[in-house]
Amino acid sequence: MKKHLAHETNTLISTSTTDRQIQLLATEMNIHLRELREKRRRYENGDQELKVAATNISHDLRTPLTAISGYLELLEQEEKSVAATQYLNTIKNRTDAMKELIEQLFHYSMITSSTEKPNLTVVSLNAVLEESISTYYSALVEKNIEPTITIPDEPINRFVDQQMLHRIFDNLLSNAIKYSDGDLHITLSPNGTISFMNTASSLTTIEVEKLFNRFYTVESARHSTGLGLSIVKSLVEQLNGQISTIFHNNQLTIALSFPKNNKSK
C-alpha cells in the first residue's frame, strides 16, 4: 500500500494492491477522511464568521455605551436621594464592566482574525517591561500589591512587534491584579524569559489549566472578561514565542519567551 504524503494529516489513501480486503479498507478510510475534511472546513469557516461578527457587534455597541456613560455623568451632577445614588453607582459599575468586555472582545476578534503580519523590529524587553510596570504601578498599589521587580541592566533584545509586546505585558499585569493575594514577582532573566509569579490561593489546578481559554473566568474575578489571557496567548503565538503556566503551593507563575531570531508566521 502506498500513501501520498502531504501537509494535511487527513490525506486520502491510494493503493495499487490487488488485495480486495485492503482496497475495501482503503475505501472505508477515505470515506471517514472526507468527512473529517468537511467538518474541519465547516469549523474553520464558522469560527472565522464568528470572529467577524464579534468585531462588528462590539464596534456597533460602542456608540450607545458612550451615550449611556455621558448621561450617567450628567446624572451624577444632579441632586438625588441616597437610594438613587446607590442605584446610579450600580448602573455605572455595570456599564464600565460592559465597556471593558466589549473592548476586550473587539481586540480579541481583531487579533485572531487579522491576516496582517506583526511589525517586527529589534525591541528591548527591558524597556517595554519597565514601561508597562510603570503604567500599572498605581493600580497595583491600590490593590496593596507591592511588586518585586528583577530586570538586568544589560539590554535584552528580541525581534518582536513592540505594540503586541506592550499588550502582552499589560494583560499579564492586569491578570495579576485580579488573582494576586497581595504579592507579585516580575523577573526578566538574562536568557530572555519573562515570568510573572504571585500567590493565588483562590485558584485551583483545574482553573489554572483553563486560564487561557477564551471567556473562561473564575469566581474570584467577577469583573473579568475571560479574554485577557486568551489575547496574550494569541499574541505570543503570533510572535513565535512560548508561554506556560505553573501552579504549585498556591503560587501561579506565567512564563513567556521569544526566539532570538524571530520570523513572523
What does this structure look like?
This protein has 265 residues and is α+β, with helices and mostly antiparallel strands. 53% of the residues lie in helices and 15% in strands. It has helices at 20-76, 82-113, 125-142, 162-179, 205-209, 228-238, and strands at 121-124, 146-150, 157-160, 183-188, 194-199, 242-248, 251-257. It has a 5-stranded mixed β-sheet with strand order 2-4-5-7-6. A two-stranded antiparallel ribbon has the order 1-3. A hairpin with a 5-residue loop joins strand 4 (183-188) and strand 5 (194-199). Helix 2 packs parallel to helix 6 (228-238). The radius of gyration is 24 Å and the shape is extended. The model is unreliable at 1-9 and 218-225 (pLDDT under 50).
Residue ranges: pLDDT <50 for 5 or more in a row? 1-9, 218-225
Structural class: alpha+beta
> What is the mean predicted local confidence, pLDDT?
77
In total, the number of strands is 7
| Cross-sheet strand order for the largest sheet | 2-4-5-7-6
Largest sheet: 5 strands, mixed
Overall geometric form: extended
Radius of gyration: 24 Å
